[in-house]
Amino acid sequence: MGRWMEAINKERKVVLETTPYFLLDCSKYLPKRIRKEFPILLDLDIHSDKWIDELQILNLDTVKDLNQELSRVRRILNLEEFIPKIDSKKNIISLDNKRVRTERY
Q1: 21-29 and 88-97 are packed helices; what angle lies between their axes, rounded to 10 degrees?
Q2: What residues does each domain of the chain span?
Q3: Residue 13: helix, strand or coil by DSSP?
Q4: Within the chain, which residues score under 50 in pLDDT?
Q5: Residue 42, SS3?
Q6: H-type helices in 1-105, by residue range?
């Protein structure tokens, strides 16, 4: 069984479909020291208690916040943002090995 994600518009029509593996797995590969800085990604973890019958519905504000969190993860992965006492290169290798890494922009 696979996972699937749909984005719907105000008319409840599907405007995007994709596999959400990056979203489901991202938080567990973030360094433990900074995980709390990504609350929405933590809520999307496959083991989060926010799932109801394998479903989460996010409002527009939450989606905007998620986009900001993902942008920050990308900056960290692309070595554009550095966090004190966190080895970004080590974390990138970890994410590469788990095939969770986003593309460089």
Answers
A1: 140
A2: 5-97
A3: coil
A4: 1, 99-105
A5: helix
A6: 21-29, 39-44, 60-77, 88-97
